Structure formats: C-alpha cells, structure tokens
Amino acid sequence: MARYDLSEVEWSIIEPLLPPAPPGKQRVDDRRVLNGIFWVLRTGSPWRDLPARYGPATTVYNRYNRWAKRGVWLAIFEALAAKEPAALQLIDSSIVKAHQHAAGGKKGARITPSAVLVED
Fold first, then answer.
1. What is the pLDDT along the chain (120 residues), one digit of tens a residue?
2. Domain segments of the chain: what residues?
3. What sections of the chain are H helices per DSSP?
4. Cα gap 43→68, rounded to integer Å
5. pTM for the full model?
6. SS3 label, residue 26
C-alpha cells in the first residue's frame, strides 16, 4: 500500500458506489484503479507515467472517463462529504478592488511593459 492509497474506511464507503463488472468479464481491481486515478490527479503526471502497481495506464484512464460519464465521481464525493462533513473544505474567493480606471481604459490602447514606464 502506497502512502496516499485508500484506507479501509474510505474503501468501505466508495466500493458500493462503483458500477459492477460486466457479466462474464474479469477486470482490473477497482481499488487498485482508484488508487491509480488518485495518484495521477494528486501528482499531475501524465497517465502514461502511472506506476505499474496501479495497472495499465489505459485501463485506469478509460475507467476514469467512463465513471465520469456515469456520474460515479459525484456520487463518491457526496457520500464522502455526508460521512464526514467536517472534512469538506472549500476555497473562499476574495474580491480585490481594482484601480478606478481599470475597466474604463481606451479601446485599442497600447500596453507598455512596466520596465519602460517613465515617471511623471
């Protein structure tokens, strides 16, 4: 088990939300694939750089896309948020006041780099 792989508690919440395997078809373990998806999302690495312990990169990528189209990710997010609402973190945006003339500049005006501006 790698550092950020799903814990038993997380897996017990997520497992029932995943679509079942097609009848008569064996597929790569869902938990292994999920850990691979989370690895790519966490590191920002390309899918092709996925470590072999998570299974084939194309399988992990395809499963990620199929589950997105079926709404599986939303169901997982809602289930995890309902289980532990205190763990849900949101980013709050701030409004930054712009200069009073920031939105009213002349159209087509030449923008001069700040390095060559001259003081009045």
1. 677 788 898 899 899 999 988 888 888 899 999 999 999 999 999 999 999 999 999 999 999 999 999 999 999 888 887 877 676 665 555 666 666 666 665 565 565 555 544 454
2. 31-89
3. 8-14, 30-43, 57-70, 72-83
4. 19
5. 0.67
6. coil
